[in-house]
C-alpha cells in the first residue's frame, strides 16, 4: 500500500496526515513537493493536506490548484486513483473542478476550531463503505473558509446521486445543506473540511478520524 | 497596457465581509444604505498584443472562480485617453 502526501508552500497538516498514514498503513508515505510534475503510477492513495497554500492569496486553494503537480493529480483522478483533500485540500480540489462547488468565508466570519459531529453517507463511495450512517463521528474542524457553496442545480445533483459524503449535525460555517464533504461522480475523489488526521490518537482528540481514514485505506487495499 | 479586473461575488452568494461593513456603516450613523458587497480589484500590466479573449481566459481559469464570482475587465489606458 503506497500513499503520497502533496506538500504546497503553506501546507501545515502535511505532517499530521503523514503520521496518520504511516500509523494506519505501516508504510512511510511519499512526500511530493508541488513543483514536481509526476506522481508515480504505483501510488495507491493520494492525500492533499490542509493548510494555507500560497498564503490563501486570491482565493483559498486557487493558486495551488494551478501548480505543476495538479496536472498529474487530475490524470490520476481520471485513472481512478483514490484522492482525499482535507480542508485546504478540499478547497484545492474544488478550484481544480475535480469536485463541484466552492468554499467561501464562514457565515459567522469567525475562524472555527473545534470538534464537530458528522454523519456519513457510506454509499457515496466505496471508500466510505465501512462507515455507518447511524453513527456520529466526532472530527475536528479548523478553518475560516469552510462554507460550502454550489448552485441549486449542483446541490440537487449531489443529493440525487448520493454524492454528499459527510454532513454536519451542527453546522459550524453556514455550509449549504450542512455539507461537510463531497465525492465526485466516480467516487474516487473525496473532499472534506473536517480533519480526520487530527483524530487518530486517543491522546489528542479521539480516534474517529482513524475510523474514517481506515475505511478509505481498507477500500483501497481491497482493490489494490 | 493597463488592465483592471474587478471580481465580485455573484448575487445570492453570502458576503459576510459586505454584511459586516454594512452593519458598521449603519452603526456609524450613515442612513439609507441598501446593500454592501465587497470585491477584489486586480491590475495587470500587459503587452498590447494581449487580447480581451486572453484576459477573459485568465479570469475564468484563475482570477475569478465562476462558481461564486463574476468578473469585469476594464482597459485603463483607453479610459485615461478618453478623460
Low-confidence stretches of chain B: none
Largest interface: A-B, 21 and 12 residues
Task: Enumerate how many helices of chain B there are, as a single number.
Answer: 3
Tell me which oligomeric state these chains represent. Answer: heterodimer
What is the count of β-strands of chain A?
11
Percent helix range of chain B: 25-40%
| Cα radius of gyration of chain A in angstroms | 16 Å
- Looking across the biggest beta sheet of chain B, what order are the strands in? 2-1-3
The major β-sheet of chain A equals: 9 strands, mixed
The SS-based structural class of chain A is alpha/beta
- Beta-strand portion of chain A reads 15-25%
N-to-C order of helices and strands of chain B: EHEHEH
GO molecular function (chain A): ATP binding; glutaminase activity; phosphoribosylformylglycinamidine synthase activity
Active site (chain A): 87, 195, 197
Keywords (chain A): ATP-binding, Cytoplasm, Glutamine amidotransferase, Hydrolase, Ligase, Nucleotide-binding, Purine biosynthesis
GO cellular component, one term (chain A): cytoplasm
Task: Explain the layout of strands and helices.
The complex is a heterodimer of chains A (224) and B (83).
Chain A: E1 3-7, H1 14-25, E2 30-33, E3 45-48, H2 68-79, E4 83-86, H3 88-95, E5 102-104, E6 112-120, E7 136-143, E8 147-149, H4 152-160, E9 164-168, E10 179-183, E11 189-192, H5 208-223
Parallel strand pairs in A: 1-2, 1-3, 3-4, 4-11
Antiparallel strand pairs in A: 5-8, 6-7, 6-9, 9-10, 10-11
Helix pairs in contact in A: 1-5
Chain B: E1 2-9, H1 16-27, E2 39-45, H2 52-63, E3 69-75, H3 76-82
Antiparallel strand pairs in B: 1-2, 1-3
Amino acid at each position: 500500500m503506497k500513499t503520497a502526501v502533496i506538500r504546497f508552500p503553506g501546507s501545515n497538516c502535511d505532517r499530521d496526515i503523514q503520521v496518520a498514514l504511516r500509523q494506519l498503513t505501516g508504510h512511510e508515505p511519499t512526500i511530493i513537493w508541488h513543483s514536481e510534475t509526476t506522481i508515480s503510477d504505483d501510488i495507491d492513495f493520494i492525500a492533499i493536506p490542509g493548510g494555507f497554500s500560497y498564503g490563501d492569496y486570491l482565493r483559498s486553494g486557487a493558486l495551488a490548484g494551478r501548480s505543476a503537480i495538479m496536472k498529474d493529480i487530475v490524470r490520476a483522478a481520471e485513472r481512478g486513483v483514490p484522492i482525499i483533500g482535507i480542508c485546504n485540500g478540499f478547497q484545492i480540489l474544488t478550484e481544480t473542478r475535480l469536485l463541484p462547488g466552492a468554499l467561501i468565508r464562514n457565515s459567522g466570519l469567525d475562524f472555527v476550531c473545534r470538534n464537530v459531529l458528522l454523519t456519513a453517507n457510506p454509499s457515496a463511495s466505496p471508500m466510505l463503505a465501512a462507515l455507518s450512517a447511524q453513527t456520529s463521528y466526532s472530527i475536528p474542524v479548523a478553518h475560516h473558509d469552510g462554507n460550502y457553496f454550489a448552485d441549486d442545480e449542483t446541490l440537487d445533483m449531489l443529493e440525487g446521486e448520493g454524492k454528499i459524503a459527510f454532513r454536519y449535525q451542527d453546522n459550524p460555517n453556514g455550509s449549504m445543506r450542512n455539507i461537510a464533504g463531497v465525492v465526485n461522480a466516480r467516487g474516487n475523489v473525496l473532499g472534506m473540511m473536517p480533519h480526520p488526521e487530527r483524530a487518530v490518537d486517543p491522546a489528542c482528540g479521539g480516534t474517529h478520524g482513524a475510523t474514517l481514514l481506515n475505511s478509505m485505506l481498507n477500500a483501497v487495499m481491497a482493490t489494490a | 497596457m493597463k488592465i483592471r479586473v474587478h471580481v465580485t461575488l455573484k448575487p445570492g452568494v453570502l458576503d459576510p465581509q459586505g454584511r459586516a461593513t454594512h452593519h458598521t456603516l449603519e452603526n456609524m450613523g450613515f442612513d439609507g444604505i441598501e446593500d454592501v458587497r465587497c470585491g477584489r480589484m486586480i491590475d495587470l500590466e500587459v503587452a498590447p498584443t494581449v487580447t480581451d479573449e486572453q484576459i477573459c481566459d485568465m479570469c475564468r481559469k484563475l482570477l475569478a472562480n465562476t462558481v461564486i464570482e463574476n468578473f469585469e475587465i476594464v482597459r485603463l489606458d483607453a479610459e485615461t485617453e478618453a478623460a
